[in-house]
Amino acid sequence: MSTVGVRHHQLFIDGAQIDAPDHYEIISPATEQLVCTVAKGTVAHADAAVAAARRAFEEGSWSRKPPHERSQVMRAIADRLGEDSEQLCELEIAANGATLRQAMAFLVGYAAPHFLYFAEQAASYPFESTVATAAYPTASSNRIHRDPIGVCAAIVPWNFPLLLGIWKIGPALAAGNSIVVKTDEKTPLSLLRLAEIAHECGLPKGVLNVVTGDGPEVGAHLASHPDVDKVAFTGSTAVGREIMRLASGTVKRISLELGGKAPAILLDDADLDIAVDGALFGCMLYSGQICESGTRLLVPDALHDEVVERLVARAATIRLGDPADFDTDMGPVVSARQRDRVLGYLDAARRDGARVALGGGAPDGAQFERGFWIEPTILTDVTNDMTVAREEIFGPVLCVLRYSSLEEAVAIANDTPYGLTAGIWSSDPERAIEVAERLRAGTVWINNWHQIDPALPFGGCKQSGLGRELGQGALDEYTEPRHVHVDLTTRLDRHIFDALLSEPPAGR
Ligand code: NAD
């Protein structure tokens, strides 16, 4: 493929654009056309980025800046993310195939408010606090300082690169850390732009560095780097396990946001108009390539046929097409590899005895000859032991499972190694909340999906991850508590030293 005439993007290390001998070709998932080229980072680039981050951290131009001043710089960055959202949408969807409406609502639409939340946290977080305690035998004052950890590494996937980057960059910067972000090979553009914006807004050089590079080489190098203090990762559970292993060498702090296989329980009192549209929204937004998507719809026996009929009728109205067209409902999946993976799961479903009620393959039509397309697909007769019910498909594929009692529904819902999100469709909120209490998931949505607020914690139970992003505790993951104890006893005979020294000092 000729790269003549296309824009070339470079890495962002120590406040400067840095090129590399090799490059990635960024391909439009909708047309397979070359969008641009991007410098392909190496282990040496990762080392340079970590060294810059360490130097900046030790220098203190950010790490020791008063938190309210960090907050001001971060507010300026949040403002720019809002102002530049059109350009960021273009960069995001050109590489990952999300539709313009999805990018405006979620992928880029969430970026400025989420960054702003962390800017506000920089100003309000209790970096220093005094704790009243009666536990010590002598009077004391006890302070807790929450210090930045040092150099953080963030490894992000391709589905929500800008936003998932911000979920790590935001709290890291708010707490005074330096950070090196490794983008996914396919989708580096929006985060490279964020690094430029941040520096234009006054972030000192070296504090935020963005490198590209192959995961098993550059990502793994960062995860085991002796001078990296914390690794934050979003991606597959398999790579999450590897990151844990790599980070263990120097006992790094880690936070992991991994896969999901969320159950959506449709209760027998659900408003079916809302539940049917909501179940499709929950599963198929961004072609189903979201870790928190509701991919297993649990339907009571008595409503099964009606619900399936309605799901098929509504899903058949989803318009596939050019992601940049405002009227398009669903774009392609991100890559040929991802398309083939999804098709493989559909083959497995058929072999296992599931029925394809809608879709089930690549769409017909000249428009879909190029690009990586999968039809909106509804599978019925799915049982929870089938591969499609157990593994993350990451495509627009809704699995419908039957249940005959609420006990059975809860058991099926929890019968998964994952625990990121779950959902309930019901017209009785009290009853739904009682069911929610029995579900093992980091987030339970009742009568909605994809509702992620920066003020509320997000993360997984079981093999869906470790730690929580967002919420008031987000900065806890990027700080190290330091307890400073000041003893207030002025008289030796009132001290506790006699636990060892029973003889009074000479002359007393
Ligand atoms: P992945 O986990 O392989 O990649 C995510 C990030 O990790 C990328 O930046 C990649 O370069 C990096 N990486 C890969 N191998 C690494 C290693 N050995 N050490 C360090 N970093 C490494 O995900 P994928 O291959 O893009 O997608 C595969 C599947 O993962 C998807 O089909 C989906 O099921 C799941 N996934 C989940 C999420 C999520 O948000 N939880 C996001 C993307 C993919």
From TrEMBL:
Signal peptide: none annotated. PANTHER family: ALDEHYDE DEHYDROGENASE-RELATED. The keyword Transit peptide does not apply. GO terms for molecular function: aldehyde dehydrogenase (NAD+) activity. Keywords: Oxidoreductase. The keyword Oxidoreductase applies. This is Aldehyde dehydrogenase. Gene3D superfamilies: Aldehyde Dehydrogenase, Chain A, domain 1, Aldehyde Dehydrogenase, Chain A, domain 2. Residues 22-484 form the Aldehyde dehydrogenase domain. Belongs to the aldehyde dehydrogenase family. SUPFAM superfamilies: ALDH-like. InterPro entries: Ald_DH/histidinol_DH (IPR016161), Ald_DH_C (IPR016163), Ald_DH_CS_GLU (IPR029510), Ald_DH_N (IPR016162), Aldehyde_DH_dom (IPR015590). It comes from the Bacteria. It comes from Patulibacter medicamentivorans. Pfam families: Aldedh (PF00171). The active site is at E257. Its EC number is 1.2.1.3.
